[in-house]
Amino acid sequence: MSKAIKITRILIAATLFVLPVFAVQAEDDFKACVRCHGPEGNSDNPDVPSISGLSARYMEASQRAYHDGKRECGTSKMKCRMAAKWTDEEMAGSAAHFAQFKRVAPEQVFDSALAEKGKAIHEEHCASCHSAQAEADPELQPAGKLDGQWREYLEYALEQYAGGGRQQPDKMRVALETLSEDQKDELLNYYASGR
């Protein structure tokens, strides 16, 4: 057997041994995220958002806002402590990791008639930023998909925007100011429907 073939076999064997180790390490890197957001980013807690299927660009921007103290962590002080320690590499890695998974809408109670009205509101006021097509557009400010998200979490997020706990684009602020409380409820029913 030639020396080149022996070296090739050794390299292949080493690669096959090392790859599973790296795969385990990669999964371990996200254990802290999984604890709250679920194994593939589909949360089973109404107060914790599902992060599966969000664009990596949006996820990184959200993590950066927590890291830099521009977004309140709400009742999760642990999240703020963790966010302050995130490196750029960790934020990019976790964003890419959870972006690859499909959003699974949780079972939620919603009113179908209100959800139908909410769909029209979404299409008129929100879809230009909060859709898969919008997330892929590099010209737009990153915005997450809202369909199939927990209603309780979205209600909390709207309170944060209204109270200044989260920065929001002018376009979003103007859109929300034009909506009545009833229309916001219709919109939340639509997102809770997971359509």
Class computed from helices, strands and strand pairing:
mainly alpha
CATH superfamily annotation? Cytochrome c-like domain
**Beta strands, count:** 0
The whole-angstrom Rg is 20 Å
Mean pLDDT: 81
Helix-strand sequence: HHHHHHHHHH
- Uncertain segments are 10-25
- CATH level-1 class: Mainly Alpha
> Could you say what the CATH architecture is?
Orthogonal Bundle
* Share of β-strand residues: under 5%
Question: What about the largest sheet?
Answer: none
Distance between the termini: 61 Å
Q: Globular, elongated, flat, extended or rod-shaped: what is the shape?
A: globular
- Under CATH, the topology can be stated as Cytochrome Bc1 Complex, Chain D, domain 2
Instruction: Report helical residue fraction.
Output: 55-70%
- In the residues, how many domains can be counted? 1
Number of alpha- plus pi-helical segments: 10
Structural features:
195 residues; globular; single chain; mainly alpha; Cytochrome Bc1 Complex, Chain D, domain 2
Task: Give a concise summary.
This protein is mainly α.
Description:
The structure is a single chain. It is built from 10 helices and no strands. It is mainly α and about 200 residues long. It has one domain (about 5-195): Cytochrome c-like domain (Cytochrome Bc1 Complex, Chain D, domain 2). The chain has helices spanning about 5-30, 30-35, 55-65, 75-85, 90-100, 110-125, 130-135, 150-165, 170-180, 180-195. It starts with a helix and ends with a helix. Residues about 10-25 have low confidence and may be disordered.
